[in-house]
Amino acid sequence: MIGVSPEPYLDLILNPFNKREWDYLSLGPSYIRLNQSAIRPVKQQKVQIKSQLKDIYNKVENYLVKKQRMPKTARILKQYSDHLDDYFNQSYFAPICYKDQIQAQEQAYTAKSIRNKIQKHKLILRVTDKSNNFYIGSKTEYEKKTVNYFSDTNAFIELRENPFNEIMIEVTNLLKTSAKDKIICQWQERDMMPNLTTSELSHLYFNPKTHKDGIPVRPIENTIHSATKNISTFLDQRIRPIFNDKCSITIIIDGDQLIKQLRIYEMNGLLKSTTLFCTFDIHNLYTILPQDEALDTLIEFPSTYGYTRVIGIALDALRKLSSVVLKENVFVYGRKIYRQILGGAMGSALTLTLANIFMWKWQQKLVEEQQQSGEFYGRYIDDVFMTWNRSEEELRQLLNGANEWHPNIKLDYQIGKSLPFLNVLVTNNDGILTTSVYHKPAAEPYVVPYTSDHPRHVFGNIIQSALNQAMRYSSTFENFQKEQRYIRLKLLYNGYPSSIIEKEYRMFFLGHISTTSFLSLLQNESQFHLMRDHIMNLSTIDAIHQIDNEIQHSNINQQQQESISTVEERQKKYQDKIIVHYTHEKRFSPTKRDLHKKYTDIFQNTPAMNVRLIVGSRNRRSAQHDLIRKRPPKRLLQNRPSKSKPFNILS
């Protein structure tokens, strides 16, 4: 049960923050300050108005001109633009209540004072790994942890010069030459070509693992603007569906799927009172992959299943493209530039797929052992769950032997009759499988605070998702009731009103139970299992993504023009929809409704009314992005002679 309200992890002897600052930090990394733009200068607000107006109007205009054949010079489009302009100006410059004005100013001042104090006292502020609260520690001590990581992995070398231009030339030349020689198609070249204006080196940062002894760090590489990012994404979207299809027996998507697989294991009479569970994880999987060996395995995998090409690309060309992603992974950390020589970027889409395929080969002996004895084996990236019906000593011998199968792969394992895996606590209760939601001992009871400047539907979604997980992961009514209490207390700690909690609880039960059958709140074990069986038959988000990948893989097998068909399907799906976004703040709560009304008022009695306008929202900057500075200077990320000139491929 929860004992205290959520707070940051303080890795210092003394707390340098006053109560106001500490309370703000306790709101967590997802918190969004109230009405952020309301206290900005008029000039900045006008820039934001212009940006939102341009974004929304361009999407509406492009759709109506291309799909509805409306002339670009049509007066009605000008009327729509003028109405939008007037609306946003009124919304931004309308006075807000005194209380909200003071609160917005106080929160901005508090955030600024926290940033100043972090700099003054030479502190480090980061988001904890897997706990979703802030970590505060000494910058000097934190740097020692990162130095230890570099030395322990030996996966990086420091560079004396910035190779950004050379990387850009190499990537673009590879793609152009491959297209010219018809190794890849022109549309594939376009999809993989880096953006010559926005491309830059990746940058590295570390998040602390406060749930582990000694608080080690996890490296995260921001590759969103890297020269190879588009190649990485393109290849991952094509290779991963094949992997998911061919390795579906050993893949665990989420805790929900694990429970379903173990229920089958139990129903087949394989779960005995003496059955042991085992979990193990691989040390630093992303940074221990030998690059050439990983590339060889990447080609070996499709070859094993009869592939000579993937979306029309020969396997040797696939290796070349993947090689540039791995071997041109150069990033900035601090004021220095590094190249990764072992493994791949933890943050690159292709690295995950390469790691999965590498593990596919490594685990083959273990999978064969489990399948021959009828035992369960499932893997979620670098975490494995197994069942075992022989002696514990034999299992330890097997795992200790597995530690010798590859010089780079070392695993830590746990053996027992009750083990956590993917937020599920799996227990062998004298031959009966029981499951419940698992909460790490070090995890803070944190969710997005109710006072955060998020759209109101977000808070309802948080409650619904928590109850859905509780229902799926709890195998007994008693476990579900316990988790319900945990969720309720956690929500109360984070400022959720009791009335909102009760409303969302009732909505959850009414959404899955016929009101003519029994009361909206569960009363006994039989009602619980009836509702749980219904929910377990619904797909989770992760499972839906898996199905989408399998559909995509099916399209690949059916025709070579997979990309064209996928684009056509996507266009058909959205052909009668215009999707626009505004930036949410508390003072803009009516904006979604008002944008619908503006569209209807202007375009009524025109073919434009046959189109469905979908209005979504973007969020303002969260506390994580407001308080944490991880991005290195631009001059290090882009080795260019002038800030005003874009990269010249011929330079």
From TrEMBL:
Residues 188-463 form the Reverse transcriptase domain. InterPro entries: HTH_animal, RT_dom. Residues 619-651 are annotated as: Disordered. It comes from the Eukaryota. This is Reverse transcriptase domain-containing protein. It comes from Adineta ricciae.
